[in-house]
Amino acid sequence: xxxxxxxxxxxxxxxxxxxxxxxxVISLGIIGVLIVGAAAIFGxxxxxxxxxxxxxxxxxxxxxxxxxxxxxxxxxxASYGPPYNNGWHGQAQSIQSIMGFSxxxxxxxxxxxxxxxxxxxxxxxxxxxxxxxxxxxQALTQYQSASYAQQQQWDTNYSNALNKATVAAGRxxxxxxxxxPVALMMNNELQLAKSGLLSGALNRQTNGGVxxxxxxxxxxxxxxxxxxxxxxxxxxxxxxxxxxxxxxxLPGPWWxxxxxxxxxxxxxxxxxxxxxxxxxxxxxxxxxxxLVPWVPGLNKLPKLLPVHRLIWRDWYHFLDKQxxxxxxxxxxxxxxxxxxxxxxxxxxxxxxxxxxLSKDV
Amino acid sequence: MNWTxxxxxxxxxKLTWDNLLPSEQPVYVNSLVxxxxxxxxxxxxxxxxxxxxxxxxxxxxYQTSSLGEFLRSVHxxxxxxxxxxxxxxLVGQFFMGSWREGRAxxxxxxxxxxxxxxxxxxxxxxxRGDFFSQWNQVxxxxxxxxAGLDGFINILNNGQVYGLHIAVFPAILIALVxxxxxxxxxxxxxxxxxxxxxxxxxxx
Lengths: 361, 204
Description:
The complex is a heterodimer.
Chain A: E1 15-17, H1 20-42, H2 52-58, H3 60-72, H4 115-131, H5 134-145, H6 148-162, E2 166-168, E3 171-173, H7 182-195, H8 197-206, H9 216-222, H10 225-233, H11 257-262, H12 274-290, H13 301-304, H14 307-311, H15 313-322, H16 331-339, H17 352-360
Antiparallel strand pairs in A: 2-3
Chain B: H1 3-14, H2 17-20, E1 24-26, H3 33-57, H4 59-64, H5 66-95, H6 104-125, H7 131-147, H8 158-187, H9 197-203
Helix pairs in contact in B: 3-5, 5-6, 6-8
Protein name (chain B): Cytochrome B6
Keywords (chain B): Membrane, Transmembrane, Transmembrane helix
GO molecular function, one term (chain B): oxidoreductase activity
């Protein structure tokens, strides 16, 4: 009979009784007690989401600055680029690229968002219609029919004034200046936000109507300083290991540590394309993990490390204690089967030593 | 070639009842490390069970009612347990070189399951409906955009994120875990590394 490589069928090893169903049920019981117990004792973290109404009430100047940035094109989303727009008047600021490789641009602008129109003009048109507000209507008409240079002049003047603004009884008070219709527009935007209706006005646009679930509009409005200020106060920014931990004392998604770690070191923490670099670095590392069985060196590493001796210490003790192969008539094949890479047993044959060993286990 | 016959032959040979529901194990299967796999699976059962109840009642319920909050806590700790035991399982299996002797597919499917779990958990965090979700949505939009994935997944669209979390990724994950289990059961548990040549000679 041909003496070939022994197929390491695990049934050829000595066996012992095992109750898979019982083990599964016991495991479910242990894990269930742990999980339900932890849930009852510790609960789960939850901090209510921030609304632009809250921001408007607590930081009215910030809301006006945000809206003005959206109107004038200085806001980050105004000039973001794909997938929201092609930048502000063709100038995109946030397109990530690694040596010309820029997958961000591949899909065009599937979620179109023009901040001047969507964040300011359209919500204010809704407000003017809802409240029959003639001065606001006139202000909107005046702004939209003005030249771009004139619009930018008003916007810049009001932006400078907002830097010196004070708040009196919830209203923004600025030094006098030539703001055209912009001051009235911004004050109305603030009022709309304070009422809580701005979110609806924004989200009905990304939803293409109502009765849908896309809240991009509201998130894109808030995503700048409004949310960053709050996140910074609770150590949630990217450079503070942001997503890696929860904002409460309970554990967060710690399994993202390798990914979050990248954001703490250059070039990921300093490059404008840091997100793209981090994503593809993690992608490459993950492929390495998937391909471990075929990566030379890495696939032999666990054999060199002594950890497997600890995991299978009972088995190795068992072999030492038995020293069974010494007296086995099939000594060579027995030894190879237990300890060698290639077995020497005849094909289809079970070494007799196993049977004697099985009795002692 | 008859595909049906081939599939039936292969399934009959590999998926015997002795393999699927073994009442015996090789003697070397005797370590706490072997428990991490079944603990991972048990945690996944609690993730799915609590998730089904939560999705049946809807996001408003688990964000506003006390019973909903408790179920959300159960879901949260199930996920924590799942990742703890998954990580231990992954690390343990690495040290055991468990891809050896025809088990590479088992390893690959297990690693893919881990990746899908991470994305599944991430979409879950975005479905919490609180500041954490809100903040990480706006932060991760830059990551998804940079990676070129936002054309497929609008991370700011709650409807899409929630659908991915409760249907698409769970279906993929369950399929992968099922395949992983079948691969483990059809091949059996990886045998220990042989002892070194030097030690073997001493024994002889």
